[in-house]
# Entry
Amino acid sequence: MTFGEWGGGRLPWHAVTVLVVGGSGFLGTELVRQASAAGHRVAATFATRPCDGPEATWHEVDLRDGARVEEVVASLAPCVVINASSGSADWAVTAEGSVRLAMTAVKYDCRLVHVSSDAVFSGSRVHYDESCLPDPVTPYGAAKAAAETGIRLLAPAAVIARTSLIIGGIQSEHVRLVHDLATGSRTGALFTDDVRCPVHVEDLAAALLELAFTGACGVHHLAGKDAVSRHGLGVLIAQRDGLDASRLPEGLRAGTSLSGALDVRLDSRATRAKLRTRVRGVHEFL
# Structure
């Protein structure tokens, strides 16, 4: 059964081919692990190096290369494509590459789940549900917002899942920063006025896979229910990992030259209500 044949209903939860774009990243690695554990045939892409392990077949793909994107999708014929790639502020990758992937997924009748970010918001209203329109204030946020717009027009049956700070083990960039600051191997500060709703990587991956196999479409928010500052998050991570939280330097982001929103809280209640997967808040998983 192909995605087109089920006409927007629930995909059958049996072994199908799942393609994880950006499979060597932090979230991508967890998606590969969970999809493989569920019995699916898993393929994954990488930009620089593949991961070790037998869970997936690996394919080198640059999202700027439309011919290569089409070659891989056409050869694999995946039922589900999950775009967990991270091109940072590189417009050609994050914006154009994501739209190019969406066009290819539509052409080959693949179910598409695209991972977006709370960076699409300016923080001017603090609380954001799925009905809120993007108003980015950074190049990365603008690229993510552009990708969302293109995907909604080209692939209206796709899921666009906005998320926040992704937490887990030391592979998480946010966890590594806390360890480096606590041990003095990196300088900097954790801001007390920079607030987000962190999510655990295992919860996020499970929720994305669940959405992939339902008739869900459009924008969904997948973040934890607890809002916490960067410094508050750092303290929780330090306590979990046996570090001295008093060594974490704190500061205020307001008044610095750093761009980006201060306080962005994704309201994920509507999406969480649809899911069997529990998306925990940071005070529960840390």
In short: The two ends are 41 Å apart (CA to CA). The first strand starts at residue 17 and ends at 21. Residues 50 and 169 are 19 Å apart (CA to CA). The chain has ten helices and 15 strands.
